[in-house]
Amino acid sequence: MSNNLNVTLLDEEVVMADEEFIVSKTDLRGNLTYVNRTFMEMALLNEKQLLLQNHNIIRHPDMPKGVFKFLWQTIKKEEEFFGFVKNLRSDGRYYWVFANVTTEYDIAGKPSGFFSVRRKPPASAIQVIAPIYQQMLQIEKSASSDKAAEQESINYLQQQLKALQVNYQNFAINLFNET
Ligand SMILES: Cc1cc2nc3c(=O)[nH]c(=O)nc-3n(C[C@H](O)[C@H](O)[C@H](O)COP(=O)(O)O)c2cc1C
Q1: Can you tell me the distance from the alpha carbon of 140 to that of 138, in angstroms, rounded to the nearest whole number?
Q2: Distance of CA 124 to the CA centre of its chain
Q3: Which of 2, 56, 79, 136 could in theory staple to 153 by disulfide, Cβ–Cβ 3.0 to 4.6 A?
Q4: In the structure, which protein residues have their CB atom closer than 6 angstroms to any atom of ligand 1?
Q5: Residue 101 counted as domain residue
Q6: Boundaries of domain holding 56
């Protein structure tokens, strides 16, 4: 599968350091306006390569569309998003993050962009979430259209969460806390 960095994918994980935070800010369409040093070190990209690019520059093809659809649905409602994301580095390797995305406001109180902080997720959480994402990808591949793909895959995620009797935010937060 293709990726926005046009790199050959390597099935090798790079694990974030315990005490580090990856921080980025975007405009309302997800174009990067700020990245911290840890972001650049993990993605192996510099400010010139990142700023003004869409956040999907580090999108990994193993991530289901449904997760991002759900992210955007949540933040457009000005609600806070929590979730696990597998991201791509410019050397083809990947790193998992536990992401929190919130809305930023201008002085008039209007949404002006988004702010994201990511930490190292527990390995136990990735063991639970990775097979769910894999299943979502399969559902998306066999769907009749892109729109159907996203919806069917979000439905699958919701079903899994219903079985666990939690919503996605709590699911992600609980998984994060179970170390
Ligand atoms: C604040 C913020 C942070 C985001 N962080 C990531 C991220 O770490 N990785 C990622 O793939 N997409 C991230 N996204 C979502 C991307 O903008 C995009 O929707 C996603 O990569 C799917 O790309 P596609 O629509 O081209 O498939 C973020 C969006 C926002 C607003």
Answers
A1: 5
A2: 18
A3: 136
A4: 24, 26, 30, 54-56, 58-59, 63, 65, 68, 71, 85, 87, 99, 101, 114, 116
A5: yes
A6: 22-177
pLDDT in tens, 12-49: 999 999 999 999 999 999 999 999 999 999 999 999 99
CA-to-CA distance for 155 and 171, rounded, in angstroms?
15
Ligand 1: which residue has its CA nearest to atom 21? 56
Residue type at 179 in one-letter notation: T
Q: What's the CA-to-centroid distance between 75 and ligand 1, angstroms?
A: 12
Give the residue, by CA position, lying nearest to ligand 1 atom 28: 55
Note whether residue 2 is domain-resident.
no
**CATH code where residue 110 lies:** 3.30.450.20
Rounded to two decimals, what is the model's pTM?
0.93
> Residue 124: pLDDT above 90?
no
DSSP letter for each residue of 10-71 = ---B-PPPTT--EEEEE-TTSBEEEE-HHHHHHHT--HHHHTTSBGGGGB-TTS-HHHHHHH
CA 119-98-152 angle, 5° bins: 165
> Does 3 map to a domain?
no
